Amino acid sequence: MPATTWTPRLRRARGPLYAAIADAIAADITRGKLHAGERLPTHRELATVVGASIGTITRAYAEAERRGLVRSQVGSGTFVRDLTDPASYSPMLDRSRIDLGPTAAPIVAGDLGHCALSAALAGLAARADLGALAGYQAHGGSEAQRAAGARWLATTGVEAEDDEITVCSGAQHATVLALSALASPAGVLVEELTHPGVLAAAGWLRLPTHPVALDQHGLVPDALARACRDSGARVLCCTPTHHNPTTAVMPKERRLALVAVCREYGVSIVEDGALAPLVADSPPPLARLAPERTWHITSLSKATIPALRVGFLRAPAAARRALETAAAATVWSGSPLLAEIAVQWIADGTAIALRDARRAEAAARQQLAAARLGHWHYRAHPTAYFLWLDIPPQRRALELVEQAHARDLLLGPSHLFAARPGNAPNAIRVSLAAARSRAELDRGLTILAELLDSPAWSALQ
Q1: CATH architecture of structural domain 86-104+353-453
Q2: β strands within 161-231, DSSP E
Q3: How far is CA 33 from each of CA 62, 205, 419, 453, rounded to the nearest angstrom?
Q4: What is the mean pLDDT of the chain?
Q5: What is the pLDDT of residues 261-285, one digit of tens each?
Q6: 310 DSSP 8-state letter
Q7: CATH topology of 17-80 equal to that of 112-348?
């Protein structure tokens, strides 16, 4: 592949030139001027362009590689990394590794989930009306399914009428439906750190994303107001309860301030509540505080078993026809078999029992993490599936990820969750869910603690 003719836009700064060049690489990845897989100019070519020594360019490329922006291949050159591809960091099919990475499946709470699924499938097989579950169903789900969705939403404080519910093939499908129905070419307001599925949905729909600053309590209302004014976007995607990846739970006062900004600027809210069932006694959801403008997403796969790909989207009743059209265009019909299991489990209490078992297992794993990582600065909720670990400034997150990979440990680098990957914080998300047992998780956390405590710094500290 020929090298790009990229020329860095260097800002005047007091810092060293090599750092300014690395900053320019990050900025142009964010702007879309540098694309994944592109080969950067050779050291000599870039040195000539910017009037610097080859040594300065070598250090600049090394700094960019430390930030996770590029990858050097001996004899081939320096290439822009694909900062949006979790697969390069967490190959889920490789079970020889301990998976604490970004695409981890939710906890399997002992054998309870497997036993419940086995019993449900056996019950379906014995039904006389099994044939009715083998065909297509209404695009937005049946009346019984929508009623079950309303009942499940009520467990997290969301009040909904049956005709406000659209049945989806999981929370990701619901996200695509909501954005396709709501968003304009002005794009979508998103948290500066967010679930990769939101970014993937926006990218697939060709919607620009506008990041909004976060603090320890979640979205910052003043930053949201500025983003509304600057971008013209009138759709916000956010996760106020069990934020992914930081685990933050937004206080009620902040939620009220957020709603006030959205009302002032006419912003519709897409509230991701897929992980909310794991948090007991959380503040009221945005769907309760501002039902006229909130589209709330939930699902069963995070709270019960991953295979139960059934989600529910609560939206104003006037949106139902548009959502059914979008559902027809994307999956045509959800699986009646999976939806029937969802209806049964919500009705007979199995879904709640599995949720409670998962909360308990998540709590036990968080306690294990605290024992291994307690002297490091990280953020976590007591029943979260993961934690957010800040990396000491003298090291880089991707450096740690690659060292862990060499020891068969998978981690989640922050740029996978960043709306602007080139400006990702120096942090990692550590999943506690995918390890097949607490003993395996303990081994993985022990390796991580050893790497964090290791004096093996990079040459550019």
Answers
A1: Alpha-Beta Complex (3.90)
A2: 165-168, 188-191, 209-212, 214-215, 218-219
A3: 20, 20, 16, 38
A4: 88
A5: 999 999 999 999 999 999 999 999 9
A6: -
A7: no
Nearest one of 31, 456, 412, 130 to 244, comparing CA atoms: 412
Enumerate the domain spans of the chain.
Answer: 17-80, 86-104+353-453, 112-348
> Contact, 25 vs 34, CB < 8 A?
yes
How far apart CA 268 and CA 175 sit, in angstroms, is 13
234-258: pLDDT as tens digits: 999 999 999 999 999 999 999 999 9
User: Helix 438-453 and helix 350-373: axis angle, to 10°?
Assistant: 30
More confident position, 218 or 423:
218
The DSSP string of 319-360 is: GHHHHHHHHHHHTSS--HHHHHHHHHHHHHSHHHHHHHHHHH
Q: What residue type is 101 in one-letter code?
A: G
Rounded to 10 degrees, the C-alpha dihedral 89/94/100/104 comes to: 90
CATH number belonging to the domain at 112-348, selected among 3.40.50.2300, 3.40.640.10, 3.30.360.10, 3.40.50.720: 3.40.640.10
- The predicted model gives 432-442 an average pLDDT of 90
Rounded Cα distance between 291 and 294, Å, is 5
Q: Are strands 427-431 and 412-413 parallel, antiparallel or unpaired?
A: antiparallel
Environment class of residue 388 by beta-carbon count within 10 Å: exposed (0-12), middle (13-18) or buried (19+)? Answer: buried
Confidence (pLDDT) at 282: 94
CA dihedral 223, 431, 253, 263 (to 10 degrees): 50
Q: Do 332 and 350 contact (CB within 8 A), yes or no? A: no
- Are 420 and 192 contacting, i.e. CB atoms less than 8 angstroms apart? yes
Q: Indicate the pairing of strand 188-191 with strand 209-212.
A: parallel
Out of 1.10.10.10, 3.40.50.2000, 3.40.50.10420, 3.40.50.720, which CATH number does the structure's domain 17-80 have? 1.10.10.10
Residue that is written with structure tokens 């909360």 in the block: 359
* Of the candidate ranges 29-33, 227-231, 282-286, 323-327, the one whose mean pLDDT is the lowest: 29-33
Residue (of 422, 348, 369, 358) closest to 123 by Cα position: 348
Residues written for the chain: 461
How many other CB atoms are found less than 10 A from the CB of residue 1?
9
Condensed to tens digits (0 to 9), the pLDDT of residues 124-169 reads 888 877 777 777 888 888 999 999 999 999 999 999 999 999 999 9
368, with CB counted inside 10 A (0-12, 13-18, 19+), is middle
Q: Tell how strand 386-390 and strand 378-379 pair up.
A: antiparallel
Q: Evaluate the CA torsion angle 204, 207, 210, 212 in order and state its sign.
A: negative
